Amino acid sequence: MGRLKSGIKRQKQSLKRRARNRHVRSTVKTAVKEVRSAIEEKSPERASEALSRAASLISRAGSKRVLHRKTAARKIARLSRAVHMANTVSDR
Questions:
Q1: What's the longest Cα–Cα distance across the chain?
Q2: Of 83, 2, 92, which is closest to residue 43 (Cα–Cα)?
Q3: What's 16-65 look like in SS3?
Q4: Is residue 71 part of a domain?
């Protein structure tokens, strides 16, 4: 008994999407780690640059539904707050 063509196509599509989604999530995680490490090193300008890149990647992932939009917003908010707190502490 043969498989349905539509089932085979769906499987191919889901594998393609899975690979794309994994890549996007991995890229987001790396960007977040860069921001966190810049904060740890007390490098405010590097942290701000990294935050800008990370926020862009996270919002893109949210708009493409790789991440839920509220999860994306929460991640950006928490990173922004962490960078802001680090900058205010380093200014003093």
A1: 74
A2: 83
A3: HHHHHHHHHHHHHHHHHHHHHHHHHCCCHHHHHHHHHHHHHHHHHHHHCC
A4: yes
Report the predicted TM-score, pTM, of the whole model to 2 decimal places: 0.86
DSSP class of 42? T
Residue 37: closest CA among 47, 29, 24: 47
**Residue 51: inside a domain:** yes
Nearest one of 27, 32, 62, 30 to 47, comparing CA atoms: 32
Range of the domain at 44: 14-91
Q: What is the CATH number of the domain that holds 64?
A: 1.20.58.110
Give the total number of structural domains in the chain: 1
Mean pLDDT for 70-82 is 98
Average pLDDT, the chain: 94
